[in-house]
Structures are given as C-alpha cells and as structure tokens.
Design brief:
The chain has a 7-stranded mixed β-sheet with strand order 1-7-6-5-4-2-3, with helices on both faces. A 4-stranded antiparallel β-sheet has the order 10-11-13-12, covered by helices on one side. Strands 8-9 form a two-stranded antiparallel ribbon. The chain folds into 3 domains: 42-288, Type I PLP-dependent aspartate aminotransferase-like (Major domain) (Aspartate Aminotransferase, domain 2); 292-398, Alpha-Beta Complex (Aspartate Aminotransferase, domain 1), CATH 3.90.1150; 405-466, no CATH class. The two termini are 19 Å apart. The protein has helices spanning 4-15, 38-49, 61-77, 92-105, 124-132, 150-156, 179-188, 204-209, 249-252, 279-315, 342-351, 381-398, 405-412, 421-430, 443-451, 454-468, and strands at residues 85-89, 114-118, 135-139, 161-167, 192-196, 226-230, 242-246, 257-259, 267-269, 320-322, 330-335, 357-359, 368-372. By secondary structure, it is an alpha/beta fold. It is 42% helix and 13% strand. It comes from Actinophytocola gossypii.
C-alpha cells in the first residue's frame, strides 16, 4: 500500500504540467471567478455528498431537494414560468443530447426524424444526431454576423422536423441567434425549439441588467420549449453540472427512461446516467447559495469590463480583428492579412504563459483564436494585451506556415474511410513528431489539419485520440 501523502504528492507533480486553471491565463476549458473561498466551499460540499447516489431520489432526499432548488434558481433567471421543470445533468453535452432525445421520442411516428440547426450550432448536436439517429439539417448563417438566418431556418423545417436549435450565444463567435422569429416559426409547425444557452445562460441576464442590448432568448420567448445552461461555466461551479430546462412536464416526459424488463429493480432514469454521484450537484448547490444573485451580478460586471477592454485592445493591434459583433464573453480573433499566421500567434502566446484556443476555418469563418473571458481576467487585461502584441510581432517576423505542395497533396489525397496506421504515422513524421505526443508548439500541426477536409480532420484526430489513450505496457 502506498501512503496517502505520497499518492497526493504524485498527483500534484502530475498536475504541475497542466494548463493553469486559475488566474485567467487559460482562455478556454476553465472558468475562474477569481474569488477566494469558492473552490474550497465547493470541494467541502462535494465531499459531503459524493457517496450519495442520484439514481434513487427517494433514498437520498437531500439530492432531490438540492436538484429542485437548483432547477428553480435557473428557471427564475431564465424566464421560466409556473410549469417549468428541469434536470441537472453532467454538462452541456448531456443537456443537449437529452433535448434531442426527448424531441425524437416525442414523435415515435416519424421513421426518419430531422433536426434543423444553424451551422454554428455546437458539435454536441451532431453528436446527438449520431447517437440517436436524428438527421441534422444544417443551415448557413449570415457570413458577416455569423447569426442564424430566420428565413433560411424556417424554410428548412418540414413534416419530419422534431427540433429546431438556436444558440445564446454560439460558441465559435459569441453572438446570440435571433431566437424569437425562429421559435415562432417552429411553434407554427408544432416543432420544439431548443435554446443552447450553455455558455451564456448564467451571465447574459446580468449583462442585460448592466445595459447591454441583447435579443430575447430565454423560456419567456413564445415557442421556446427547452433551454440548456451550464453551471460549471459562468455560475463558476465545479465541472460536471448543467441544467436542462423544459417549458412543462409534458415536454420533459420523453426524456425519462424506465425499464421493468428484467428481474432486478425497475430502472428509472432522468438522465443518460444511472448511478451518479451527489458530489457535483451538492457543490453546485452550495456555490449558487453562497454567491447569490448579487454575487453573480458583481462577477458579470467584472467580466463585461474585461470583455470590453480586451476587445478594444485587440482591435487596436495591427493585424488582428474580431469576427462578428459578439454580445457575450467569447471573442474570435483572426488575422487581418495573409502575412500573419494565427496558429503561430497561439504558439507565441503559449510561450508567454497564455492559452488561446485555435479554431479552424469553416465556411465564411476564417482560422481564428478563441478567447473565453471570465471575471478572473479583470485587472489582467494590460498584461494579456501586451503579450498578445508581442506575440503578433514575433509571428509576423517568423512568417506564415508554408506547407510543401507535395505534403498538401498527400494530405488531401487521404481517404478518411481507408486511413491506415502507417499513413497516420507518416503524417506524424511529416509534422516533426516522433510518435504521438502533445508538442508545445502546434502551428505546423494545425496548418496540416487546416488543409484536411473536415471528415479527414475528424478521422486524423480520432486516430490521435486513440493513440493518446493507450496505456503504457509494463
């Protein structure tokens, strides 16, 4: 048996190589309130309930009470009425999956159900389509604003449509889709409308109170039947908590699963999971109780100030521009000319202790860097902007990544359906990687992935992921 303190020391040593989760330097994946004591409160609450099992709310009534209170808090913030119900899930992806599954199962008469979504909708909906056999009908957005086009979305609805999806905001560009006309069109055809507010749901209402002009997007909009909001984003709760709200119990009912077709207990689930720890729910409940509406209002004010300062500062850096007109907390920053490679800028920022998330070009959206701004960024804007200015200068001096024409030809000639391990290994070698690893500088790898068609890029990254998650043999 290894002593507990040695195990924890080993874990701390491993964590030292990760991206920082606090301090505002990792502008993706993590959400930092910048407040002291919040993490400790969440950890203590998690520990108190981690052994409780959310599978059976009658056995652990504390979890039932906490879930109902969390759902009620979310509904009050997001336009819910007396009939609004909801479920706490493990994250935004599960919330989106369940919204699609419930819409499909509400229409068992349709042999080939379809779902209409803007091409900026989160990839979680394509995952749901893949899992649940729902055909995704993707509709191009406005190429300048990156918002969903109400007329085009309406035209895509047909007799097989079970769900229409809109975003508040969309992840890639941080813009809010025009929810009211799209929800109205869906309602006219008797189709459900889901609002993906996983990122924006907990902060946009506070932005509106601070004077930000925002389109209506929540459950108060006629025709909106469900909405997802993540607590582990701008509610600053630990990871593993999201809320899926439904306009009524009738809308939610197909989400539930029950099975008595075996000799054990009758299985009854409200989510994709059966057994689920009460820890994440308790942690979220505690943080929501602790911060309260006033606390979230102050955090939103700090976040809005950081967003405005960073956006203005980025637009003053020669060679950079912000895509669209983001209303939320997400900024997509692209190069203003062909002599600047944004993937190299990302590497240069990594060297300076920042993580900016690369996004590949897609339809009208060019390659860009994605910044998720949180309350922790307030006060650190000058340092980030100074380092970004220096990173742009260094990237311009280095010049854009130029792949050899024969390498581009070799990449684009690959067939994602017949890709072999040897071909994948050859690409790693061409990228300068000695086997599968996570190199610090990714510009050349990203340049190679950027020239690959989307399906091939998916296949290459699946191979990469599979190789990463291969245990070392002892």
């Amino acid at each position: 048996m290894i002593p507990a303190d040695e195990v924890l020391d080993e874990l701390r040593a491993m964590r030292a190589g990760d991206l920082p989760t606090h301090g505002g330097r990792t502008l993706a994946y993590v959400y930092d309130s910048g407040l002291s004591g919040v993490d400790e409160l969440a950890a203590d609450a998690h520990a108190l309930a981690s052994s409780a099992n959310g599978l059976d709310p009658t056995a652990f009534p504390s979890l039932l009470r906490m879930e109902n209170e969390v759902v009620a808090t979310a509904a009050a913030l997001l336009g819910g009425g007396p009939s609004t119900v909801g479920t706490v899930t493990s994250g935004g992806t599960e919330s989106c999956l369940l919204a699609v599954q419930a819409a499909r199962d509400a229409r068992p008469d349709l042999p080939r159900p379809r779902m209409v979504l803007a091409d900026t909708a989160h990839a979680a909906f394509h995952k749901a389509a893949h899992y649940f056999g729902v055909e995704p009908v993707t509709v191009p957005v406005d190429p300048s604003t990156f918002r969903a086009d109400p007329a085009a979305m309406t035209a895509a609805i047909d007799d097989s449509t079970v769900l229409v999806v809109v975003s508040a905001p969309s992840y890639a560009h941080g813009v809010v889709d025009p929810v009211p006309p799209i929800a109205a069109a869906a309602a006219e055809r008797g189709v459900r409308c889901h609002v993906d507010a996983c990122i924006g749901g907990w902060i946009l209402p506070h932005f509106r109170r601070l004077g930000v002009s925002l389109p209506d997007f929540d459950l108060a909009v006629p025709g909106v039947t469900s909405l997802s909001v993540d607590l582990h984003k701008y509610a600053y709760c630990p990871k593993g908590t999201s809320v899926l709200l439904h306009a009524s119990a009738d809308v939610r009912r197909p989400q539930f699963f029950a099975s008595a077709a075996w000799p054990g207990y009758t299985m009854l689930n409200s989510t994709l999971q059966s057994t689920r720890s009460g820890g994440p729910l308790a942690a979220a409940w505690a943080v929501l109780r602790h911060l309260g509406d006033d606390g979230y209002a102050r955090l939103a004010e700090r976040t809005l100030a950081a967003v405005r300062t960073l956006r203005a500062g980025i637009e003053d850096i020669p060679g950079l521009r912000v895509l669209g007109d983001p209303e939320a907390t997400l900024l997509a920053v692209t190069a203003a000319d062909d002599d600047l490679d944004v993937f190299t800028v990302a590497d240069e920022m990594t060297e300076r202790g920042w993580y900016l998330q690369p996004q590949f070009g897609f339809v009208a959206s060019p390659p860009n860097l994605h910044l998720t701004v949180t309350a922790a960024n307030h006060g650190g804007e000058p340092e980030l902007l100074a380092d970004l200015t220096a990173a742009v200068a260094a990237a311009r001096a280095a010049g854009p990544i130029r792949l050899a024409p024969e390498l581009v030809t070799a990449i684009t000639a690959l067939d994602p359906d017949t890709l072999t391990p040897d071909q994948f290994a050859g690409l790693l070698t061409a990228a300068g990687l000695d086997g599968v690893s996570t190199p610090r500088r990714m510009a050349e790898v990203n340049a190679m992935l950027a020239v690959a068609p989307p399906r091939l890029r998916e296949r290459l990254l699946v191979e990469f992921l599979g190789a990463l998650f291969t245990p070392a043999r002892r």
